[in-house]
Amino acid sequence: MKINKKTSFLSLFLAGTLVLSVSAAADVIIGDGYNSAKQALKYTTKTLANEADSFTLNADFQISVDGDRVSYEHTQRKFDFVNNRTEETSESQNSDRGAFENYYYRDSEKGINKYDSEQYYVYTNDAMPELSETRFGMTDPFDEPIAQDVEKIADAFVSNMKDFVQVKDLDDGGKMYFGSLESAQIPALANALSSFALKYTVVESVRGMDVIDIKDCIALGEVSAQVSQNADGLLDSGVGTLTATGTDKDGNSHRIEMAVSITVSGVNSTVVEPVSLDGKDVVYAESGVDRWTISGKNIGTYSAPVVIEENDKLVKKSDNILTIDSVDGNTVTGHMTIDDGNERVDSDYTAVKDDEYFDDYKAEYTDADGNTKNARIRLVNWGGEQELIYISVDLDTVTDTDGSYETKGNSCMMQMRLD
Predict the structure, then answer these.
(1) Mean pLDDT value across residues 63-83
(2) Residue 208: exposed, middle, or buried by beta-carbon count in 10 A (0-12, 13-18, 19+)?
(3) Are residues 82 and 223 in contact, defined by beta-carbon separation less than 8 angstroms?
(4) So what's the pLDDT on residue 149?
(5) Largest Cα span, the chain
(6) Cα(first)–Cα(last) distance of the chain, in Å?
(7) pTM, two decimal places
(8) DSSP of 70-103
(9) How far apart are the C-alpha atoms of 349 and 22, rounded to whole Å?
């Protein structure tokens, strides 16, 4: 399992769209049309990331399997650099968790968060001026290595393609780029690489939900895209669809459909105002970081049963137990007795707060063979009328260069014991 701790909304949307679509969909934009569309995309990302006073970005993403929608996400992100404010609202629905909504707001003085049906959390004295100074951490994705690499791949594919693109001049001075490909028109190499990307992104994202577990033979079917460029040279909307087929473990074929819709609006006119909290259930805290910081009040024992299935019954196998014995600044020590499905650990540990990711503590422990290994420990604090304090532990972790990390077992969640 891979846990990604590092995201940038604009970069994720643009780079992700490139990774999943350019290797196939951009193949339909050839010659002058391709070059014109690429330059328009570069101009748009540069303007939004570095020059615009404000803008609003809406993105919709949907995955269906055999005609049934299994995942849907809608995100609206507003940036108001004049007033140093940003706001994000998101709605998600999948066959595993159902529907849920999140809200995020940040300015130079406070932050407001809402996670699904929880209360609104208002964090004062939580100013992050460095985010305002750096346009809330926004960067031009074309300045990042992944976009440069994808651009080279797309250019290589385009050089071997026929001209399928259609470019239409609009009455208002803008342009419309559109085109489509069927499976027979997609080069074998483009199909193979795009299928690889689909398998380890889109298909992997729905694995574990109550849907068909597609394993192999993922192949692209049809690809279509339409992108609008306004008279100012900015791309302001885009729609893309993609179909693919794949087989499950029994060899049965299934149809996967993906649809993406993106709009950019309110350039230099978007004004961000925080949500009204009148009549809302609100929790005030001095700092959002404090919610994830382990302190002396968290000293104690955390536990959860390990349950397995035997003879169609759920049976308790053991208990996962983590103790916090001492907290000294950003250093936590204690003992863990944990079975994550991959290994069982009975060891003391020392954990130090991660400087880059404030909700993580990097820990070291000793496995059954005497080897020193790394783990991640995280405080999960759901406030309410009754405080629910949990500790999450991932064993045997390996950190990647992008800040994400791999763990061979399952995340283990344990609740604090209150005598």
Answers:
(1) 89
(2) exposed
(3) no
(4) 79
(5) 73
(6) 34
(7) 0.65
(8) EEEEEEEEEEETTTTEEEEEEEEEETTTEEEEEE
(9) 46
Query: How far is residue 360's CA from residue 161's CA, in Å, rounded to a whole number?
Result: 47
CB-CB contact of 31 with 165 (8 Å): yes
| Ordered DSSP codes for 26-78 | GGGS-HHHHHHHHHHHHHHHHHHHHT-SEEEEEEEEEEEETTEEEEEEEEEEE
What pLDDT, on a 0 to 100 scale, did the predictor assign at position 9?
Answer: 39
From 283, 314, 342, 303, select the one nearest 119 (Cα to Cα). 283
Q: Which amino acid, residue 289?
A: V
Angle at 358 between CA 134 and CA 365, to 5 degrees: 145
Look-up of token digits 């992944």: 146
Q: How confident is the model at residue 288 (pLDDT cuts 50, 70, 90)?
A: low
- Given a contact cutoff of 8 angstroms between Cβ atoms, the answer to whether 116 and 100 are in contact is yes
User: Mean pLDDT across the chain, nearest whole number?
Assistant: 77
Residue 242 dihedral angles phi and psi, to the nearest 5°: -150, 135
For residue 114 the two structure tokens come to: 């809402």
Q: What pLDDT was estimated at residue 31?
A: 46
CB of 144 closer than 8 Å to CB of 16: no
